[in-house]
Amino acid sequence: MLLDSAFSLFVLGIFAGAASQRMMTKVPEVPNPLHRRVCHTVTTDKGKTDTICKHVNNIIFANPMASQFWVDGTTIPEVDFDVGDSWSGLLPISADPNETRKLFFWFFPPGPEGSFDDLILWMNGGPGCSSLEGFLQENGPFQWGVGTAKPVPNVNSWTNLSSVLWVEQPVGTGGTPNITDEDDLSVQLIGFLQQFLEVFSELKGKKLYLSGESYAGQYVPWIASHIFENPTTLNLSLQGIWIADPDLGWHVVQAQIPVVDFVRKYQNVFAFNQSFMAQLDSIAKKCNYEGYYEKFATYPPAGSLPLPGNSTKADPGCDIWNIVFQNALVKNKAFNAYRIFDTFPVLWDVLGFPGSFEDVQLSPVYFNRTDVKTAIHAPPDVDWTLCTNKDVFPHGDASLPSAFSVLPNVIEKSVRTVIIHGLADFVLIAEGARIVIQNLDYFHSIIRIRSWIKRTPGNGLQGFRTPIIDDSFLVDGVGSLGTAHTERGLTFLEVELSGHMVPQFSPLAAFQSMAFLMGFRTTP
Ligand SMILES: *[C@@H]1O[C@H](CO)[C@@H](O)[C@H](O)[C@H]1NC(C)=O
Ligand SMILES: *[C@@H]1O[C@H](CO)[C@@H](O)[C@H](O)[C@H]1NC(C)=O
Ligand SMILES: *[C@@H]1O[C@H](CO)[C@@H](O)[C@H](O)[C@H]1NC(C)=O
Ligand SMILES: *[C@@H]1O[C@H](CO)[C@@H](O)[C@H](O)[C@H]1NC(C)=O
Ligand SMILES: *[C@@H]1O[C@H](CO)[C@@H](O)[C@H](O)[C@H]1NC(C)=O
Ligand SMILES: *[C@@H]1O[C@H](CO)[C@@H](O)[C@H](O)[C@H]1NC(C)=O
Ligand SMILES: *[C@@H]1O[C@H](CO)[C@@H](O)[C@H](O)[C@H]1NC(C)=O
């Protein structure tokens, strides 16, 4: 079951859903502090000058409830610089005054260069992993990276682009997690956003971008589909989605079929001997993985792509991912499935999850510290770990993979869609994402929302029609760093040297592609 464990390598309480009634029961009569920043004069790229406080003044929230969420940017433990004003805490997922289910959020207004007209929402995957991972180690305004001694400002913070909202979801700890599928999850998140907009109503009407990675390849398209299909439920204007190393289709496609080609491509990293490689080849042949990519990932594709065997995960004896992973750990104790280039020793991680596994730390996990919880209005009684040990889908996720259900329609409704993939990711392999995309059926988009199923006609074309060109992803100041391909609103990017968490491992590539999604540049 290693394949499963690959997606739950992250395994353990997030703040979301802690049944603290403290927040919403009574609105304290606290005067709204003025979170005004010093105004700077900035020179825009067109050579004009502008003052930043023009945007930031807007972010003085009129609702007195906002002030209870305010975080003083000079008081965040271990952060020895001012990160500016932000707002965090728990909000319920419905307007029911007795609602106990809450989600934890951390909201940052745009930095000096960011747009106040836009709002990015970020979600990590798991399922059940905290989006504070992304906050602290991927795209937040300050970063505390694996193997480093203290937090530093993040020059590639997505707050340079616009406001950003990190949300721990779905409801995990506290109340009993009882969601059955992506519809339940979407209803929770949208319910939370409604409550969020009541408190932070100055954000109403903004352009919304949903982003995330890994299992958020399920969350993001499903939530987007709910928003597009119910346009009046949320006063935000959804523009597009950005997903990194996403879980989109069947595991056998994204984490079995491409394994042997991947091991050959990186043979110097895996350091397997020839007899072992021959064993892998024979398994790949027996399981119909061999030659699958060459035969079926054609441009355009020949038709609907078949499963290689009888299972959407792996047939008996065909879990080649697990065989490779176990043997990679023999050669390299620090083998990191999330970024294969890591070597011994395993580095210290302030979030307690430095590589393939959770690590026992002598020092406290950052978000589990009482002083940190106090600073960000997190419930003091919840033990925070990067991923919850409660299954947020107690009976599994009953939704179809996004690629076979809502994704085609979401691509069509979005102004732009970005799927980005690290080429050094072994948890999910980029060639697998290519196969999933070549199997995307733009004609049949199934939208299942609660009790009804709707088929929307797409534009009738499956997959990309023209091939992906090598070295076509040009990153500013770097040069080519992978591939870029856009057809019919979908941009697929592959990033050399990046592992699973693209904003962490290739922050500039992530930033630039997000700027493209938001229309701040014309090329990815
Ligand atoms: C909330 O709970 C209280 C106490 O159980 C109950 O009296 C009240 O009717 C509930 N309110 C709603 C809106 O359900
Ligand atoms: C983000 O903003 C900071 C401060 O204005 C700037 O130094 C940095 O270069 C910006 N980063 C990007 C990727 O634009
Ligand atoms: C989950 O439990 C809550 C009460 O804790 C209930 O209101 C809700 O309907 C349940 N959801 C599902 C999908 O069962
Ligand atoms: C949505 O928000 C905008 C901006 O605050 C506001 O002008 C508009 O009236 C709102 N629309 C609805 C339907 O509430
Ligand atoms: C070749 O690799 C396999 C798997 O790592 C190992 O079990 C075997 O002992 C190796 N053979 C030699 C000769 O090193
Ligand atoms: C798939 O199922 C069929 C029929 O049950 C069986 O003949 C075949 O061997 C199975 N294939 C694999 C790869 O297990
Ligand atoms: C979090 O803190 C609690 C209480 O201090 C402790 O029992 C628990 O082991 C901590 N969890 C982690 C992962 O450090």
UniProtKB/TrEMBL annotation:
Transmembrane segments: none annotated. It is an enzyme of class 3 (hydrolase). The keyword Transmembrane helix does not apply. InterPro entries: AB_hydrolase_fold, Peptidase_S10, Ser_caboxypep_his_AS, Ser_caboxypep_ser_AS. One of its GO terms (biological process) is proteolysis. Keywords: Carboxypeptidase, Glycoprotein, Hydrolase, Protease, Signal. The keyword Oxidoreductase does not apply. PROSITE patterns: CARBOXYPEPT_SER_HIS, CARBOXYPEPT_SER_SER. Its EC number is 3.4.16.-. One of its GO terms (molecular function) is serine-type carboxypeptidase activity. Residues 1-20 form the signal peptide. Belongs to the peptidase S10 family. This is Carboxypeptidase. The lineage of its organism: Eukaryota, Fungi, Dikarya, Basidiomycota, Agaricomycotina.
